[in-house]
Amino acid sequence: MSKTQKKVLKKILFYFVLAVIVVYLLFPFYWAVNSSLKSQAQLSMTPATLIPRDPDTGEISIFTSNYFAIFKNGQFLRGLVNSSIVATSTTILSLIVGSFAAFALGKLRFKGKEPALYVILAMTMFPQVTVLSGLYAVINALNLSARFSMIFTYMLFTLPFTTWVLTSFFRDLPKEIMQSAQVDGATPFQTFHMILLPLTAPALVTTGLLAFIQAWNEYLFALTFTSIDPSARTVPVAIQYFSGEFARQEPFGEIMAAAVVVTIPIVVLVLIFQKRIVAGLTAGAVKG
Amino acid sequence: MAKKGMSELAKEEQKLAVKLLIPTFIILLVIALYPLGQVFYTSFTNRTFAGTGTTEFIGLDNYQKLLSFSIKELPPVVDEETGKVKIDEETGKKVFQSPIQVLPRQPELYRPVYSFNFFGSKYVVGAVTPDFIRAVFNTIIFTIFSVLIETILGLGIALVVNSEFKGRGMMRAVMLVPWAVITVVSAKMWEWMFQPTRAGLFNMLLDKFGIGTGNFSFLTNLSLQMPAIIAVDVWKTTPFMALLLLAGLQLIPQELYEAAEVDGASKIRQFFTITLPLLKPSVAVALIFRTLDSLRVFDVFQVLLAQKRYSMASFNYFQLISARQMGMASAIGVIIFILIFFFALSYMKALGVDTE
Prior knowledge:
The structure holds 2 protein chains of 2 kinds.
Chain A: H1 3-36, H2 40-43, H3 65-72, H4 74-107, H5 113-124, H6 132-142, H7 146-153, H8 155-172, H9 175-183, H10 188-199, H11 201-217, H12 220-225, H13 235-240, H14 252-272, H15 274-285
Chain B: H1 2-42, H2 61-67, E1 69-74, H3 99-102, E2 111-118, E3 121-127, H4 130-162, H5 168-180, H6 183-193, H7 201-208, H8 222-249, H9 254-262, H10 267-295, H11 299-304, H12 312-322, H13 326-351
Antiparallel strand pairs in B: 1-3, 2-3
């Protein structure tokens, strides 16, 4: 075999492996889209078809009613609203509180910095499930509403995360900025919110997005705290409890439509902020 | 004068730092530390949720109930007439006594969890709360396999994406898709693919390749449940692993490979002498990070198996919400906490904090 032949063969092999990876990563999502465009009759066809086909004629026939059905279904819409409220509130609160702490940890000199950093790092690994029964008792004792409980308790994972990631961003800002601001007579807090905060705006967006996704994803607390108040269910819980018009079967067509609807916005967001997200993820995990 | 000014400034900085940190620490105190203390305390009581009974301090009873297990040898059944070991006529194997006869009944009833053969003898593992012992076992199996497979697949994908080719940006975007899918939603998507008829993707495919008759019930068949759950988790988290490892790969200086090329080292040799050793820190961190995550797995287990098979976290949820055993749930919480604590310690040791 000549050298060029070998090269071509290698290239073909490489692209083949690449194609396998792409199919593996995307196919389950494609299957959800495919299934969401099938009617109940099409869904129960055996064998299942790779594209929606008519059960009798075998011709391609696309069924869109699942999408209309989920938007007529109060549970799903309410879930979207609840998830948006909860995830947005938690994210904003964590960003505000977390950026204060991160500024102190990243730029100020003070006693007890190292233990404080260790506490924050330890908190990023805190297993939520351990405090489940304790938090549940607290929430019941205080009679907090389910939505508020979620906003508050989600900070258990969003706050340490935002603090930790933002700390590394603040630390990387050049010292000279703070020094020159001090020379100009700015107090450290003025330096923080007038100079440093605008500089970290991109970091805030990325960190906020990642915190938002974590909160949007959360299931354990949502399932537990909404067990007494079904109207406060967030998207993951609503999808899990999805019931169709025909109570007997699980309405997989509608569930898949809902799956597609909740996934697409996140995928679009993630693709827009792609580079930053990868940087944020690695800052949050690889660097700690 | 100048010195005094400096210390004045330092004092001010100290004060400001404390002020800025207070909100974070108060919030963490209320939602983490206080409930944690509460959980530790409750784990020593028999508290039930919305129960009528009074709460009593019962010491380590919950832990004892959860963790006590014993391994007993099953004696073979001896035929009374002949005095010989009874042999099953159909299979030709020895007949053993049933586990219930062998396992202790006092002070707590032990129920069989698992039995196995070892050098011709039969043993049984019994436990007071077999579901919890199984949940621990499930979680450990899940953690070992999913983390291992994710690391290998993730490393493979990272190596492929790290090489120069057209559409590399696109590929990175594709990698983020499974990661962006809500865990519950991905579990639902897979549940649908796991349907026990040929309406499900896997049964349809297996049937096409002539394996089985198109009715594997992945989620009810005991030996298929764990592989199914692991498959879902691997799909969802491999890209994340790949991204972490990719970041590590890009830290390796290109010159090393160029030098190796000059020395005539083969690609495989380069992988084992340059890539792998230099990637070790990234792999270690990613491994511990994923292990911590897997040990507290809840979503996939709860959605796909609910009460058919538990992870530690989903058993905790079950004890709290369905069985309303708050004391018991708290004890499970403490056990998970201790387990994860040790992993977290090693993680922090691997990382360290950077104060400058």
